[in-house]
Amino acid sequence: MNPLVYDLPYDALRQRLVDMGEPAFRATQLYEWLYVHRVTSFAAMTNLPKALREKLAETFDVAAVRELQRQVSKDGTVKFLFALRDGNAIETVIMRHRYGNSVCVTTQVGCRIGCTFCASTIGGKVRDLSAGEIVAQVVEAQRFLDREGERASHVVVMGIGEPFENYEALMTFLSILNHDKGLNIGQRHITVSTSGIVPRIYDFADAKLQVKLAVSLHAPNDELRSCIMPINRRYPLAELMEACRYYVETTGRRITFEYAMLGGVNDRPEHAEELARLVGDLLCHVNLIPVNYVPERQYVRTPRDEIFRFQRILQRHGIPTTIRREHGSDIAAACGQLRAQHNRQKRRQAAVEGAR
Question: Where are its TM segments located (predicted)?
Fold first, then answer.
């Protein structure tokens, strides 16, 4: 299996072409075909010499993902189930906002973090994605939007997997995504979410990017968070908050705390008061998330009036707080849910075939 051409940042691609005996300007032409015209084959790159096109086709692959399924919600949300070249499946989502179209990308096949409300972790982690496999999700989403004359203006790295456990590929992806000769999506229009991998929060702060950071918090104390998110046993809240303070002090940027509202679990007024004490000294924003129903999980969504009550408590303490607008509630809305359905179908089919 050849490497993906999408795996290479601009400078690395230029050097690779020079090593192949080609002039450096070919990299600009190649990037334009890949990210501006978004062609699906080297043969379509008509201003490249035929010999180079053939050499590229022998050296790299362009087809990184293949659409298996697409669900379109009445609110305009589009969820794709993509097959990778090795047959594994991942999800990518287009979400419509007043400010533009946001693409939510996946960084791993499955996830090992084990958050108890999440469908992404069902079955554990299979492998990391390459930078090019993450890039290709944005390219495919943009091809879909091209047919509507629209553009992907924002990217959120909040799909299946823990981005900071695939850190090198993530950073390469961000450089490709942001490059002015490529997709040219500004850093301030990109958000990366982590479950709280503390060492990487320090690394990310030291990189001094303009990319937004979101931390999945979901509980205001160690006992509850360790039950909901096992990663807390490795990186408890004291360590996580210290890393978050370092990030804010180093970058001067506000941090977002994601907080899934789990009915009867973490949504009481006393939890809101405790959360306010935990994050109140930080330059931050809290995003309350009405949890999506997942058949394999036991959680229920907090009633809306109680979510508003939770929000009012935080705001009374001076903490900017929003409630995430629901996307795709009439389709497999939860992250990883469509992939989980696909995997269940594959297992049933394999069982039937094995019984014959």
Answer: none
